[in-house]
Amino acid sequence: MELRQLRYFVAIVDHGSLSRAARALHVAQPALTQQIRQLEEELGAQLLHRSAQGVVSTDAGKTFHEHAQAILKQVEDARSAVAQSADKPAGTVALGIPQSVSNVLALPMLTAVRTSYPDISLQITEELTGNLTEQLKSGRINLAVLFDDGQLGAFAGAPLVEEDMMFITRAGSRFAPKGRSIALRKAAAVPMILPGLQHGVRPRIESIVRRAGLSLSQVIDINSVAILKSALLADIGATILPVAPMMSEIEHGELQAFPLNGAAISRTVVLCWSRNIPLTNAGNALKNLVMTVSGELCASGRWPGARSLHGA
């Protein structure tokens, strides 16, 4: 198996066509076809379905595509590590950010990188935390913002912030409490709109509810922050989440947030990287920049409900 075969295969999948991949790679299409055939023979599996409309990955091809991307990424990182200098980091760094954090962290990071490290190309991936964990393990991303659920031992990490969670409803909702806060017992009895179990915040909420001797009466699983907001605005339930991803709607008076009485719920946000795959100079520079930016966001109030743990 050769690196060029991996590059060819990834290009074909990404372009969805042998002819388009051949043009992008500046390789004759028959030569490209031959290399993929040799790769399939070596692996003993068909990787692509070919048709007049183009090509799509088989199940085996989808699995191999993930590994091929990770291998090519690590090869590129190795080249960058050798070529770049410590005083002027350069290269590509992939940072994974959960949906519930991207609203507050993504744009400040892009701005900070352009200002501090113009030779670094930052690639931001927004995903569910479960997906980010798998991508970090495989080396497809270099850094990931994750939530400490007690299962981050496979990674090296640095705590970023402690983020409070609140009871959030539509403004004037029938589920809103009469006062300025709500007891966890009453919150648990309301129909809850929550991310799925693969999302880092959900196990944390359910664990605290169980510890209080309670259970959630009804849960609607929604794994999209945008759709979750729409469901809140439609008043089909309430949620328990950090306020950061809802801040725009709260400031415009569309949603309202209430502290929880009796059992404070928070989550620890951690910046993680692989213990087995070394970070390049650019990766280390970005690691430090994420910690600096998150601290500045907390200090300025631009990360609402969050307390910096940098240096903790």
In short:
One of its GO terms (biological process) is regulation of DNA-templated transcription initiation. The chain has 312 residues and is of the alpha/beta class.
Tell me about this structure.
- This protein folds into three domains: 3-74, Arc Repressor Mutant, subunit A (Orthogonal Bundle), CATH 1.10.10; 89-161 and 268-308, Periplasmic binding protein-like II (D-Maltodextrin-Binding Protein, domain 2); 163-267, Periplasmic binding protein-like II (D-Maltodextrin-Binding Protein, domain 2, 3-Layer(aba) Sandwich).
- It has eleven helices and 14 strands.
- The protein has helices spanning 3-15, 18-25, 29-43, 59-83, 99-116, 129-138, 184-188, 201-211, 225-233, 247-251, 281-300; strands spanning 48-51, 54-57, 91-98, 120-127, 143-147, 155-170, 182-183, 192-194, 219-221, 239-242, 255-258, 260-261, 266-274, 306-308.
- Strands 3, 4, 5, 6, 10, 11, 13 and 14 form an eight-stranded mixed beta sheet that branches. The chain has a two-stranded antiparallel ribbon with strand order 1-2. The chain has a two-stranded parallel ribbon with strand order 7-12.
- Helix 1 (3-15) packs across helix 2 (18-25), helix 1 (3-15) crosses helix 4 and helix 5 (99-116) crosses helix 11.
- The longest helix has 25 residues, at 59-83.
- It is globular, with a radius of gyration of 23 Å.
- InterPro entries: LysR_HTH_N (IPR000847), LysR_subst-bd (IPR005119), WH-like_DNA-bd_sf (IPR036388), WH_DNA-bd_sf (IPR036390).
- This is LysR family transcriptional regulator.
